[in-house]
């Protein structure tokens, strides 16, 4: 029995369907072109390529020193060559002092050529020459170096006096001015020393003990205080023979001054005397108010038969005020009015020193 072979059927043929939309559309027409035609520019002629050149080897220029001829030299001067502004070897001179004809003979200083503007300009930039000249001028004329030294000394002195205020009187002691104080109490010597050293720069101020035996212990009124100060000055000159009339002597005397009824003030009178120049200067300090009760207590403590009762009291007003305020004898001014006696005397002594300095200038101008 024969088997039947199966046959694969062929695909059906395409069937044209009438009324197809895509098949009825005509092909697209060419789109309009709105770009205008651009004319290309004319070609630019290219330069010809340079011909290769063989490289040149640069040779260093020889550096030669500037040769300056003597005026007596008849040979023509050598042509000048390039010379650097800064010498190659620092510290060496830029010009030779040897003659080109005889390099073994050194010229003497008298035979060296005179300086020219070019050589002076070179000397200004040579290391050492300009600096040495500047330093020599600064030292000889007392210029910047002296001011630097004075500034350094002032700074050191200021530091020392800040650390130890008592060193100030020793640093400013000396000079040509010697002042003697008719007292050995530091409360009088120290203010006068500070005042004269402030006004004169430097001054030596010393003190010697001196007492007055022609007035009361506590003078009352200006006349009594002036007499006591003059007595102290006379005592100093009579006891110390080395204190001549050319040395100024200062005396300080405190007295009671009644401004109005029952209003009393303690005032310091300062008297400076220099007989050789006929100078006598007086100055008064500001007053420290004293209560009427304290003055009455001083009057009550003075004996009736006191020999100097006409000029004052036998006890000082300071001792009474110190007992009343419960402070030491030297501190009653500060406890009473807020200013120490030393500060009061410093201002009065500065006024005294200023007047004395003016009179010295007048006396020097007259002579």
From TrEMBL:
Gene Ontology cellular-component annotations: Golgi apparatus
Ranges for region Disordered: 1-29, 69-120
GO molecular function: protein kinase A regulatory subunit binding
Origin superkingdom: Eukaryota
Signal peptide start and end residues: none
Polar residues: compositionally biased ranges: 96-107
Protein name: Uncharacterized protein
């Amino acid at each position: 029995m024969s088997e039947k072979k199966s046959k694969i059927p062929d695909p059906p043929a395409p069937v044209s369907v009438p009324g197809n939309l895509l098949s009825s559309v005509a092909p697209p027409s060419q789109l309009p072109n709105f770009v205008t035609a651009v004319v290309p520019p004319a070609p630019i002629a290219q330069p010809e390529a340079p011909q290769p050149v063989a490289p040149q080897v640069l040779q260093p220029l020889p550096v030669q020193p500037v040769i300056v001829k003597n005026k007596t030299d008849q040979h023509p001067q050598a042509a000048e060559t390039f010379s650097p502004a800064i010498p190659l070897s620092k510290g060496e001179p830029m010009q030779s002092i040897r003659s080109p004809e005889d390099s073994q003979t050194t010229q003497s200083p008298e035979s060296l050529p005179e300086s020219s503007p070019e050589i002076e300009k070179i000397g200004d930039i040579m290391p050492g020459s300009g600096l040495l000249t500047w330093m020599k001028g600064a030292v000889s004329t007392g210029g910047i170096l002296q001011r630097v030294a004075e500034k350094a000394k002032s700074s050191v002195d200021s530091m020392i006096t800040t650390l130890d205020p008592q060193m100030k009187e020793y640093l400013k002691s000396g000079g040509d001015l010697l002042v003697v104080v008719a007292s050995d109490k530091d409360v009088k010597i120290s203010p006068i020393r500070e005042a004269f050293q402030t006004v004169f720069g430097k001054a030596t101020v010393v003190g010697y003990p001196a007492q007055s035996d022609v007035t009361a212990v506590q003078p009352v009124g200006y006349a009594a205080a002036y007499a006591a100060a003059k007595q102290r000055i006379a005592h100093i000159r009579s006891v110390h023979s080395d204190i001549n009339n050319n040395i100024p002597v200062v005396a300080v005397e405190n007295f009671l001054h009644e401004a109005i009824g029952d209003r009393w003030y303690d005032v310091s009178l300062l008297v400076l005397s220099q007989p050789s120049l006929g100078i006598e200067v007086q100055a008064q300090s500001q007053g420290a108010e004293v209560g009427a009760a304290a003055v009455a207590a001083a009057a009550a403590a003075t004996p009736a038969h006191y020999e100097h009762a006409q000029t004052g009291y036998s006890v000082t007003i300071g001792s009474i005020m110190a007992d009343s305020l419960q402070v030491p004898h030297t501190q009653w001014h500060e406890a009473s009015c807020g200013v120490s006696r030393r500060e009061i005397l410093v201002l009065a002594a500065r006024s005294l020193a200023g007047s004395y300095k003016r009179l010295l200038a007048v006396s020097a101008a007259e002579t």
